[in-house]
Design goal:
174 residues, two-stranded antiparallel sheet, 67% helix, 5% strand, globular
Length: 174
């Protein structure tokens, strides 16, 4: 839907572009000030902004790639640094420096937080055991998953799951 929307507006304005992902596109021509203003106004009406800061854009691409790796390749033995360098076409050192400079955190920390978010999602929305979740997300062990989860959330996975089940049961009408 978003891609169709963007295509229609860009085509109507006669702007050449390449869609890189659902959240990103590249304008493949130098825009005149008039075209740039018309595009910004058309997109602004729908709450879409144009990001010209290349470092901010790269940080968003890094986050998207981390999320993609965790979602689609978590069970593989590919290292995060290799995956990002290969998919984003920059050295990992460059990606890491840009990410840290713009977020005041590391890519590794972001990946840990996202991985723990996935654990929460699996605990709340599936019947997978911790062992199955650990395998699915490529943790070395259930103990490693549990330790990272507790360090990040302050709760053990089982305590988190119990709290969420109580919350769901209390919110359902009798």
């Amino acid at each position: 839907m978003c891609k169709t929307f963007l295509k229609e507006h860009l085509n109507a304005l006669g702007i050449s572009y390449a869609l890189n992902s659902i959240n990103e596109l590249t304008i493949t021509e130098d825009l005149s000030p008039e075209k740039e203003k018309a595009l910004a106004e058309a997109l602004q009406r729908y709450g879409i902004s144009i990001e010209n800061n290349q470092k901010t854009t790269l940080v968003e691409r890094i986050k998207s790639a981390v999320d993609s790796m965790l979602r689609d390749h978590a069970h593989s033995s590919v290292k995060l640094s290799d995956y990002l360098a290969e998919n984003l076409h920059y050295s990992y050192a460059h990606l890491s420096a840009v990410f840290s400079e713009n977020t005041y955190s590391s890519i590794e920390n972001y990946a840990i937080l996202r991985r723990v978010d996935l654990v929460k999602e699996y605990l709340c929305n599936t019947n997978l055991t911790l062992t199955e979740i650990a395998f699915k997300l490529n943790y070395s062990s259930v103990a490693h998953l549990s330790g990272q989860f507790k360090k990040t959330t302050g709760l053990t996975p089982s305590t988190f799951q119990r709290i969420m089940k109580k919350k769901i049961n209390h919110s359902q009408p009798n």
